[in-house]
Specification:
Order of helices and strands: HHHHHHHH
Radius of gyration: 20 Å
Distance between the termini: 30 Å
Helix content: over 70%
Number of strands: 0
Mean pLDDT: 76
Number of helices: 8
Structural class: mainly alpha
Low-confidence stretches: 87-92, 97-115
Amino acid sequence: MILLEILIGTLVAGIGSVWLAAWLSFGVISRYTQHMLSLAAGALLATAFLHLLPEAFEAGLAPQALFLTLLLGLVFFFLLDKAELWHHGHEHHHGHAGELAHHDHDHGHGHDHHHAHGERTAGHWAVLAGDSVHCFGDGILIASAFMADVQLGVIASLAVLAHEVPHHMGDLVVLRQGSSNRRAAVVKVSMAGAITALGGAVGYVLVDALHGALPYFLVVASSSFIYVALADLIPQLQKRLSARETAAQVIWLVFGMAMVMAVSHLAHPG
């Protein structure tokens, strides 16, 4: 019975937060793409620096070990970026070599478009990988709460649902870059969210053994969000803009951070 309660709680938290984020992201505000990029960057950075990393350091592990994990995570996602760009570029070169030989001007334009698309695809993988790790850790936390007390488990599930919404909004913005398929973006993030149930099931069986590894899960997830925000989103915002447009960027960036801070405070008022 307790396992069923854990699975229900983790699915509500993991997938429910994605659907709520999609409803918010693809509503009226979805028309403001640049503003959503700023909001996404703020939400991802705040999730990493104000929620995940502090929670990881509260475990009392050696800071050097956690910072090393963060550094290795950033390097891993950088290499993932490189591998994706190389693979994508290699396929493009062999698939279109004959056609591009006769269209020099179009080749330059296509290469730029292709390079940007490759960067965004790599960013998609980083977001989904970080989301999956983060959701797995959330599942273990929810399982731990349910095994302590059912009421505490319900509260933990609702808290996870609430604090996941802002950064899932950021995830959906990243996945929509270079693609107009909203459904595919929601499905991909929902699949990552479903990993929460896997974390819950594994946590139910191995809660004591895995609890000590939770800080490392949190740090790896942080590294993915930091990398995507700084390597994929922020560079798209670094354009020469008017003072008014720049102010709007900053406001939406801060708003993304404020959303995460507010929801985290409501979920964990202590």
